[in-house]
Amino acid sequence: RCLENDCTPYVVTKKTVFKWQEGFWVSMKKTFDEHYKEQFLAKGLLDKCGGELQHLISDAATMQIIRWTDGGFGMAAHNYDGDMLTDQVAQVHRSPGFITSNLTGKRDDGVLIKEFEASHGTVADMWEAHLRGEETSLNPLGMVEALIGAMQVNTPNMA
Predict the structure, then answer these.
(1) CA 102, CA 117: separation in Å to the nearest integer?
(2) pLDDT score at 42
(3) Do 36 and 3 contact (CB within 8 A), yes or no?
(4) Interior CA angle at 115 toward 112 and 117, to 5°?
(5) Which of 66, 75, 134 is nearest to 101 (CA)?
(6) Alpha-carbon span 101 to 96, nearest angstrom
(7) Where would a tag sit more exposed on the chain, N or C end, judged by fewer CB atoms within 10 A?
(8) In what order do the strands lie in the sheet with 54-57?
(9) What is the pLDDT of residues 9-47, one digit of tens each?
């Protein structure tokens, strides 16, 4: 999505504390360098970061979101880090209803993963909580936005 929308990509982890996240960064960097780097260079999207895919520690990423008010960047992150970042964007822009979580990738067997959900819980999680008799709430605007994202990815003429 960064390439399609002319955004500079960043990978966000907390690998300084969570050493297991190092593999995520290494995998993202390798995939980027092998399959996408030349396209990003050709569009000039790596000019402001030294021509390389950049890594941001999650703490630094939260500050950059506040500082980079002109947009033009995308961040790939582990689930927890992504939740934290989207929550922050929602708070800063006072529009939590439209924040979604998007997961796209491939499993080890090559099957494509495409998951889109409203922030702050999935419908499946809330349904299970409802079945247990627990009170739940749903982010309807986020759900609509997540559904639109899923349809755009899965319907060629809608993007």
Answers:
(1) 7
(2) 96
(3) yes
(4) 175
(5) 75
(6) 12
(7) C
(8) 54-57, 8-13, 73-77
(9) 989 887 777 777 788 889 999 999 999 999 999 999 999
Burial class (CB in 10 A: 0-12, 13-18, 19+), 44: exposed
Quote the Cα angle for 65-63-42, to 5°.
Answer: 50
Task: Look up the pTM and report it.
Answer: 0.59
DSSP string, 120-142: SS-HHHHHHHHHTT------HHH
Chain mean position to CA 11: 9
Which tens digits make up the pLDDT trace of 63-118?
A: 887 787 777 888 888 766 776 676 676 666 666 555 666 667 778 898 877 777 66
Cβ neighbours for 139, distance < 8 A, ≥ 6 positions apart:
96, 97, 118, 119, 120, 121
Residue 33 and residue 51: Cα distance in Å, rounded? 11
Q: Check pLDDT > 70 for residue 148.
A: yes
Which structure tokens are listed for 151? Answer: 């349809």
- 69 burial (CB, 10 Å; 0-12 / 13-18 / 19+) is exposed
